[in-house]
Write a structure and sequence with these properties.
Layout (H helix, E strand, L loop, with lengths): L4 H13 L1 H9 L12 H13 L3 H20 L4 H23 L5 H14 L4 H26 L17 H43 L6 H23 L4 H25 L10 H7 L1 H19 L3 H4 L2 H24 L5 H17 L1
Length: 362
């Protein structure tokens, strides 16, 4: 399949940005707690990450996933169903291994299952897809917010004990198994439908830009969608983050959508620009699966085995500096793969699995 450089470019930006929000949960998955600090730099980084990063990168990924499914579906006219399902099956299998063995915050299985749902409705009328997207996103989040608010569950300032920082390999596997099972229980009730709704937004954008030849005006993106997202997230943070952190995070998922849609639309509007041609970020997008898996392997190794006390003492500034280090390391890896004309190891593995499954069909 011919790659579309602008989509790879956005995907590259999104995958490189994921550690900004994921690292604290690789340190302490159950709470993502950060060491208290009164430094102004920590307060500023906390605000910027909450408003501009939390939920945004994952939302962009989900929208692009739905858009990419449509591109693959249109490309493989004869065997499109089998081709996409084989990819999703492999992705789901990798996600299960990743969640049980490395980090229970895995999103790959969710993407695989949501992708199968998208395939089942991809031929429906555009208006029906719009209604499905709205319902899939709003209903689960609305129900969960009501349950949290009525239950009176407030933000807990959980502090790690020095005796809790260490993990043996078997201890980590047991921890991952328990927590990933809990994530799988939530999957069919909340997260699956939310990601499904975001992917449907990607389907709608594909129809707008590729089928209907329509565009979302750049001015609308810059002066309406983006400000709505930032202002709404800031207000919700001021109202809920101190006492009802979970409610704020759920609202932040919703407020991430206008900003993410705006970013995707702006890049698609300028998709013929030379900026996106053979850029380092585009190659990062082409190897996004390898980068995503590398982030969690390296992050878990650092916090659980190499430097376990980091999870006690790391402030927002420390996490941000580590994120910068991760970004430099990943860009260096992508540059090496690019110069040697190699695929990332995960992309190479998926390609060989697809070839094997295709041979089995014949």
């Amino acid at each position: 399949m011919c790659r579309i450089e602008p989509i790879d470019f956005i995907r590259g930006v999104a995958v490189l940005g994921l550690p900004l929000t994921n690292l604290m949960y690789m340190s302490n998955f159950t709470s993502g707690s950060v060491a208290p600090s009164s430094q102004w730099s920590d307060e500023l980084i906390s605000y910027l990450v909450d408003v501009f990063a939390h939920g945004k990168f994952r939302t962009v990924f989900s929208i692009l996933f739905g858009l990419s499914l449509c591109l693959v579906y249109a490309k493989h006219k004869e065997s499109r169903g089998a081709e996409i399902k084989s990819r999703l099956f492999i992705l789901g299998a990798i996600g299960c291994i990743h969640g049980f063995v490395v980090w229970p915050g895995d999103i790959l299985l969710n993407y695989a299952l949501s992708g199968l749902l998208v395939l089942s409705v991809i031929k429906l009328d555009t208006r029906i897809l719009m209604k499905l997207a709205v319902c899939s996103i709003l209903i689960p989040i609305g129900i969960l917010i009501l349950l949290i608010y009525q239950g009176g569950e407030t933000t807990n300032s959980y502090q790690l004990d020095l005796d809790e920082v260490g993990f043996s390999v078997l201890g980590l596997l047991a921890f991952n198994f328990e927590n990933y099972l809990s994530m799988l229980v939530l999957l069919p009730t909340i997260t699956l439908w939310y990601v499904f709704g975001l992917m449907l937004i990607g389907v709608l954008l594909y129809r707008a830009y590729w089928q209907f030849k329509a565009v979302v005006p750049v001015g609308l993106c810059l002066f309406l969608l983006m400000p709505i997202s930032v202002i709404s997230s800031s207000i919700a943070r001021a109202l809920f983050s101190a006492e009802y952190r979970l409610i704020y995070e759920l609202l932040n998922w919703l407020f991430a959508i206008p900003l993410s849609v705006a970013v995707v639309c702006i890049v698609l509007h300028y998709r013929n620009s030379i900026v996106f041609r053979a850029s380092l970020l585009s190659h990062a997008g082409k190897n996004s699966l390898s980068l995503y898996l590398m982030q969690s392997v390296l992050g878990v190794w650092l916090f659980q085995f190499a430097f376990p006390t980091w999870k006690i003492y790391f402030t927002h500034t420390d996490y941000f500096l580590l994120f910068i280090s991760f970004t430099i390391l990943q860009l260096a890896l992508v540059w090496c793969l690019w110069r040697m004309s190699l695929k990332g190891p995960a992309e190479w593995f998926v390609g060989h699995c697809r070839a094997y499954l295709n041979r089995r069909e014949y």
